[in-house]
Amino acid sequence: MTAIPTATTTHLMTINMGPQHPSTHGVLRLLLELDGEMIIKAVPHIGFLHRGVEKLAEYRTYHQFIPLSDRLDYVAPFSNNLAYALAVEKLLGMEVPERAQHIRVILCELTRISSHLLWLATHALDIGAMTVFFYCFRERETIYDIFEMVSGARMNLSYIRVGGVSRDLPGGFLEKTRNFIAEFPARLNEYETLLTDNPIWKKRTVDVGVISAEDAIDYGLSGSSLRGSGVNWDIRKAEPYSSYDKYHFTVPLGKNGDVYDRYRVRIEEMRQSNSIVHQALNILPRGDFIARIPNITLPTKEDVETKMESMIQHFKIIIDGIRPPKGEVYSSIEAPKGELGFYIVSDGSSHPYRLKIRPPSFVNLEALPKMVEGRLLPDVVAVIGSLDIVLGEIDR
Amino acid sequence: MDNETIVTLVKNNFPEAITGSEIFRNELTIIVKKEYITEIAGFMKENKELDFNFLSDLCGVDRVGTDGVFEVVYHLYSIYKNHRVRLKSPIASNDPCISTVTGIWNTANWHEREAYDMYGIKFDGHPDLRKILTPDDFEGHPLRKDYPVDGRQPATLTEIYRKDETEA
């Protein structure tokens, strides 16, 4: 453990980094105490985006919360939808049709790629590599086109429902996705030629923001930020959900726990995600895209328009909501940023009694002072980038 | 390690501290007296068979309306053993305080600050117990059930962050 350095100059300078600063990735304010260019103390201030989502959840029915979950980590809405839906499904003790599970996997892995692309683009831009930004956004655009085909929206998708997904995959989806995943590995190699062996990139990232495996666990890091320190923990492997046990993929690990290792881990994760999507497209079974359980899942649009019973069922679910049994569950998934958990306490009514979100970015950001204290000011930018935070889910 | 083995092991070591346990949807909840929370949390982490090295989550729950208590809920996970447990500790609502677990898991720091901000639960021995999400001038604890969902305070952000400028 490195000791907190003592000042060498007579005047310590305190500066505000953020809340309006391009490299804080949102409204994060860091209060930095500087000795020359060296950081003596870093204190993050958060909460500028606090909307009280957990409070709102207590006044919404279980279905009504889905659109709110989109707005947590807004660059990975499918993962948020899925984590929430899985928690409610666990509370209800219900099964999801196989086709829906595989559709969820395809979309969540595409989400992981798009989230990691945004991370790579902005992280590289922060450190000064501008070209990567344009390349990443080009590929991300294709993924967003796919999302638009599926859900009708580009950002706040709300596609996943309790019990399945809102509608079946549209025509042309498989072809477009196949084209994307066929092309993507070559694009990834292209990014790597720009960065991986680039001496400037390495000077900015190798041995910067180091955190040991023990400290990473102690600070509660999860996702790629934890695996960069060499801890082999991926919820998709440890506690498989949504049929992840049927897929073959490896969990990339770093060694030193520095910014460079976290970069390598995420790059490799995109390759693995690409391969998972490829496998999923090949084994995607036919069948229902949502469980058919009256009182819980919404009937199809077609049935609502043609059948009296379905219309009543639809009306009852929308107005009354679903009523899970009394009890409490915690369910978490491997979101692009780490362990995204939902803790739901039900009192048997149509609203959650308490809903707690365990956002990965919130916990990952907590370790930032540990990584930057005693380092130089420019390293803060590199370390924030490597943690891949989104303030939407930190502040909730 | 399965749920029954965990609960027996903990009960055998702390017979006087455990007031109950339940298993719902294959998730184990152990209810702990608040005086023993640091001791039990330390045991959960240090015991080689349990090895709960990862604090997933920590939060408060408002049960004042029904039971007159706040609950502090800890979600523990073991990365190497791959098992989970939930600890729950009820604390009286007229004096909501409990010992901190920051000495056991550093990650508890921000979670406890959040529970303090949202419910007004005080964590004794916390190194830096400040509000975390709400603004400095914000009054009350928004996740308490008696706090209204609508209405906003203070009226504008200018009142908080630019107070000096408006006074001048």
Question: Which labels suit this protein?
Answer:
heterodimer; A: 396 residues; mainly alpha; Cytochrome-c3 Hydrogenase, chain B; globular; B: 168 residues; alpha/beta; Beta Polymerase, domain 2; 5-stranded mixed sheet; two-stranded parallel sheet; 6 helices; 7 strands
Question: What report would you give on this structure?
Answer:
The complex is a heterodimer of chains A (396) and B (168). With 396 residues, chain A is mainly α. Chain A is built from 17 helices and eight strands. Chain A has one domain: Cytochrome-c3 Hydrogenase, chain B. In chain A, the strands form three sheets. In chain A, strands 1-2-3 form a three-stranded antiparallel sheet. A three-stranded antiparallel sheet of chain A has the order 6-7-8. In chain A, α4 packs antiparallel against α11 and α4 runs antiparallel to α16. In chain A, 51% of the residues are buried. Chain B is α/β, with parallel strands linked by helices. The model of chain B has no long low-confidence stretch (mean pLDDT 85). In chain B, the strands form two sheets. Chain B has a five-stranded mixed sheet. A two-stranded parallel ribbon of chain B has the order 6-7. Chain B has one domain: NADH:ubiquinone oxidoreductase Nqo5 subunit (Beta Polymerase, domain 2). Chain B is built from six helices and seven strands. Chains A and B meet through α1, α8, β6, β7 and β8 of A and β3 and α4 of B.
